[in-house]
Design brief:
The chain is α/β, with parallel strands linked by helices. The chain has one domain (4-180): Isochorismatase-like (Rossmann fold, 3-Layer(aba) Sandwich). It has 5 helices and 8 strands. Helix 3 packs parallel to helix 4 (155-169).
């Protein structure tokens, strides 16, 4: 039994160009995530999907029952793959994710998904704080432009800052190609 799992964070329709929260580079990130998922399936590595919904309509995106909350077809779960429903950025908060990992004896996790600066960030830090060894595939994650205090921050810089922070103290950060070549 593999002590490793792939955790797919929020690769949902809402992040596509047709969604309410389109991300820069989402198509490339999903294509890379699909390669990682296919590799995991071929090698008996568990794949756990995480899907976000806002339970009380506090945001006009990720509304339960809409097409936006569906996991993108390219990375859709197969029969038997768990899907964790979350209502907060951290995939561990008030969900069964830790239980699913622990039931499978998981010690290390590879994470892919969206958004680099929000839900991927929260899940990576949460997993590391719980003692899991975490790997993040930087080119299988995506984010968007941000603004703070009148400063516009392009998505590429947001993403790079997050990956640098992970690599500094929370995770191993690598490319999909390097990961698959292991």
């Amino acid at each position: 039994m593999s002590k490793h799992a792939v955790v797919v964070i929020d690769l949902q329709n809402e992040y596509l160009p047709t969604g309410k929260l389109p991300l820069t580079g989402i198509e490339a990130a999903v294509a890379n995530a699909a390669k990682v998922i296919a590799d995991a399936r071929a090698n008996g590595v568990p794949v756990i999907h995480v899907r976000h919904e806002f339970a009380n309509n506090e945001v006009p995106a990720f509304v339960p029952g809409t097409d936006g909350v569906k996991i993108q077809d390219a990375v859709a779960p197969e029969a038997g793959e768990p899907v964790v429903l979350k209502n907060y950025p951290n995939a561990f908060r008030e969900t069964n994710l830790k239980l699913l990992l622990d039931e499978r004896g998981i010690e290390s996790i590879t994470m892919v998904g969206a958004m680099s600066h929000m839900c991927v960030d929260a899940a990576v830090r949460g997993a590391a704080d719980m003692g899991y060894a975490v790997t993040v595939l930087h080119d299988a994650c995506a984010t968007l432009d941000l603004e703070f205090g009148g400063v516009q921050v392009p998505a590429a810089q947001v993403h790079a800052a997050m990956m640098a922070a992970f690599a500094f103290g929370y995770a191993s950060v690598t490319s999909t190609e390097q990961y698959l070549a292991r």
